[in-house]
Every structure is written in C-alpha cells, then in structure tokens.
Amino acid sequence: MSMGSDFYLRYYVGHKGKFGHEFLEFEFRPDGKLRYANNSNYKNDVMIRKEAYVHKSVMEELKRIIDDSEITKEDDALWPPPDRVGRQELEIVIGDEHISFTTSKIGSLIDVNQSKSQLLRKASEELEREDDFPKSDLTKQKPSSFLIKRAAYFNSTYAL
Question: PANTHER family of this UniProt entry (predicted)?
C-alpha cells in the first residue's frame, strides 16, 4: 500500500423507528477532512454535524490499520443482512481498492459469535486486546477507544 494513495473511509450505523431516522455517520476524506453527523430524535434532539481536518499522521495511521487488517480482501456475504433493528455500512477506498460492506446492527458479542463471519469474530478479538495499543499523545486515549471501537466492531467502532 502506498501511503500517498487515495483514501476515503465512511461508516454509518442507523435505524428507522419510533423516533424516526436515527443514525451516526462519519467519514474521512482524502484531503484529511473528517465529517461527523449524529441524528437522534429522542426528546426532540437536533442533528449534530461537525467537520474538522485531521493531521496527516491520523490519516496514515488509519491507512496502516486498514492495510494491516486486510479488510479489503474480505467479503461481507456471511455477515448478517440489514434488518428491522438497523443497518451498518463501511466503505473504504484505499489506492485502487474500493470496498463497501453492509450488515445489520450488531449489539453484542453474542451476535458476533453467532455470525458465520470469521472476520467479525477476528475484529472482536482484536478489540478485546485493547491494551496492546499505545495511548495517543493528543487524546490520552488508546486508539482503539478513540477510533476503532466504532467502526471495526460495527455498532461501536471508530468513535470520535
């Protein structure tokens, strides 16, 4: 993988229910722009939208994590399909590779263990090894808490 290659990452988790369309979505664009949206109509909350630019070292670390995970070689055919509980989407462009995964909301380790997907189980195991990640000087949080928990484990991975 070339670190200077095109890079885009988008994660979405949401559902339509009693309070309308509720979701969390974020994306990292090739120019380093991070966009975040969180819509919850619970108690008439308003949509939260934030944009910021992240340092190139953050982008390089995201690329490294994705490259090391080999997720671009995976297939979501064995992942649980979206259902009435909700859906999750993960889209990644890295260099000339482009993947787009869709699955249901996964709310617990039981859901992961019942899945036929070896990738979901592997991602869960990796997240359990949180102590293996060094703390970031900028956030004083482990990268797994800062980024990975919302996107790789799909309902609570890659958080801000």
Answer: MAGO HOMOLOG, EXON JUNCTION COMPLEX SUBUNIT-RELATED, PROTEIN MAGO NASHI HOMOLOG
Half-sphere exposure of 8 (CA within 13 A, CB side): 10
* DSSP β-bridge partners for residue 94: 7, 97
| pTM of the entire predicted model | 0.70
Q: Which two tokens stand for residue 139?
A: 């956030």
Q: What are the phi and psi torsion angles at 97 (to 5°)?
A: -95, 140
pLDDT in tens, the chain (160 residues): 444 468 999 999 998 888 888 899 999 999 999 999 999 877 778 889 999 999 999 999 999 988 888 888 888 888 888 888 899 999 999 998 999 998 888 777 777 777 777 776 766 665 565 555 454 444 444 443 334 343 433 333 333 3
- How many Å apart are CA 52 and CA 49, to the nearest integer? 10
What is the end-to-end Cα distance of the chain in Å, rounded?
A: 25
Residue 154, CA distances (Å) to 53, 71, 87, 101, 120 in order: 24, 13, 9, 11, 9
- What tokens does 147 get? 């980024």
